[in-house]
Amino acid sequence: MIAAQSRAQIAEPPWEWPWWRTSARDAFTLGWIVLIHLTAAIGLILFPLPGWRLLFGTIALAWIGGLGTTVCYHRAIAHRSLTLKPWALAMLTFFAVLNGSGKPITWVSGHRLHHATADTDDDISSPRHGFFWSHLRWLWQAGIPEIKRFCLDLDRPIYRIWNFLQPPILALSYFGGLWFGWPAFFWLGSIRLVFALHAQCFVNSICHTEPTAAIGEDSSRNITWLAAMHLFQGENWHRNHHARPGSAQLGWTWRQPDLGYLAICVLEKIGAATDVRRLRRV
Prior knowledge:
mainly alpha, two-stranded antiparallel sheet, 12 helices, about 60% helix, globular
């Protein structure tokens, strides 16, 4: 009887687990998310008005970190819609890790699995399993997709090195603002990290909620109001992305701001990016 119960528990899908249940490997992720939320809440109570200079610095750091995620992780590495020179790849990866986006190998493997199984029960971050699951819980309960299957091309030292660099970079991200005083500790650290985390997570939780889509049909949506939270870098145009995942352009018209693509054009202009795959309508 006990053995049968144990097998049933193992077979139980993770979205039916209690939210706090996790593997030893993913316990750090849960602890990190709890830590930054608690610290951010304390910071907002103690220093709700940071001053315009600190607010500007926080937004600027979040914007640069967002570029690391959208340009480097998403468009360049996951979808190969452009090629970055090694120095640009390293710089943008650093800022993506600093922004709390995780290591490139794990981020890309999860995203490629999402595209391979989108709108099915196998989708790693499907909102069909609830808002909380698709917004946060999958980060510490879904597990890491098989690296050899989804990103064997990243199993190289240039990407593996970030597995070792992530802890000190996260320590810098969390504690670095303390150099400028306690308000900066909270705003440049945990408050920025919580903002960046939820901005990314909204792509999973609300950008796949097309009400007319049946199981297996495209449920992706363009969410206009989310543009501001993404600092106008284009990730909110998610239906565009699923329609043309190989394109470096996420915003298709001037009404769909995509500063991530503008940054790619600048990188191309200075020789830091090549092989940019632009939108081709069919």
